[in-house]
Design a protein that fits this description.
This protein is of the alpha+beta class. The chain has helices spanning 41-54, 100-112; strands at 14-16, 24-26, 29-35, 57-61, 69-74, 80-86, 89-94, 119-125.
Amino acid sequence: MTTDPSFSIPAHPQRRFPHGSGVEYEGGTEFRLTPERERATPELADTVVDILADGPYRYGDFHDLPMPLWLVRDEETTDVFRVAVRDGTVRLHVLPTTESDGLRRFFDRLCETSEGQSWTVQRHVDGQ
């Protein structure tokens, strides 16, 4: 855990297109951002929406899921990644072409909007 993460990506997921069932991802990396002070899912989701609305993001959300989830593109870095809010954390899911810059910029914006609250970052790599 760190409050100043590098957002290095040791493993990108592999994209598969099984016949008749869309797209699936195998493996990959996820960053879990946890605020020092516990916050409810709706409050964290509102924070994410505010960050996305301020730009430079193009994004869409998934409506019929049990948790808030967005597909995000940083228009300045061109990085594409998923953002989810679950169990008191904001989760950044690496996609096959995601690079560290977009993740780092999102984290920086999250810290800027958190009124001095610090965040810890845990990196989870599938298969490790």
